Amino acid sequence: MATLITVAPTGAETSKADFPALPTTLEELVETAQRCEHAGAAMIHVHIRDAEHRPTLDLGRLTATVDALCEQTSLIVQLSTGGAVTDPFEHRLRVLDAEPDSCSLTMGTVNFGDDVFTNPWPFVTQLYQLTQEREVVPEFELFDLGHVAALHRLLDKYGLPYGGRVHCDLVMGVPGGMPGDARTLVAAVDALPAAVTSWSATGIGRTSLPVAFAALAAGGHLRVGMEDTLTFARRQPVTHNAELVERAARLAELAQSPAMATDAARELLQVKR
Ligand code: KMH
Ligand code: ZN
């Protein structure tokens, strides 16, 4: 058994001005991806920024990002279809035109701090059918137990994803979603559909470590990165995403489930290339 480590290096919520170490340019993203791959990551969950470091779903930039990451790393490239809370549905669907290996697919609406991350059922089903048509492997993002119920409903009605594997990610500790603790993780994992073949978990902010420990103890994989966690402790900021990947790889090693290589991860998720 090995642990798939996904790095989510940027996200859409943190500003470059507040956190200059956040990779927001293509050069910074590629350098981050290379260092994170070296540290043990096998997949990268990508949000991009525009020239002013603001979140964007610009198709030209997304395509250039996928191309650069595929050329300069062996990582599985997963584009976010969640984007920022302000992104319209059409732009979020258009992300698949950039031809990533994988994409995120959030299974329902959730309060998101002071905002709402909107994922109504018709959008979820449209995006899911698009992943099947375009042969992109979805990663189902589950922010709440209701999202697990929605995943049952989706798979019952629309069948398996492209590639035949079902991979999901528990996103825990978002203010408005499920808490990031061991008992919630166990409850969510117990409730997953039988068709799920692999799952990872990530804990936002200070829930990062408790969620990682619980996930490893329960046989899950890990997602880490500055999208979710910006500090190790009070006044100890993360200075590079690779530090979070290195920590995850150390934990995985201790749990006797070391970091998974990229070719094994491709096999696990059955991505196209
Ligand atoms: N930025 C959040 C609103 C995803 O990437 O699919 C949504 C998010 C989930 O990060
Ligand atoms: Zn994301």
TrEMBL record:
Keyword Plastid carried by entry:
no
Q: Where are the transmembrane segments?
A: none
Keyword list, A-Z: Metal-binding, Transferase, Zinc
Q: Which cofactor does it need?
A: Zn(2+)
InterPro entries for the chain: Aldolase_TIM, BKACE
- Pfam families given in the database record: BKACE
The record's annotation in PANTHER family points to: 3-KETO-5-AMINOHEXANOATE CLEAVAGE ENZYME, 3-KETO-5-AMINOHEXANOATE CLEAVAGE ENZYME-RELATED
Q: What is this protein's name?
A: 3-keto-5-aminohexanoate cleavage protein
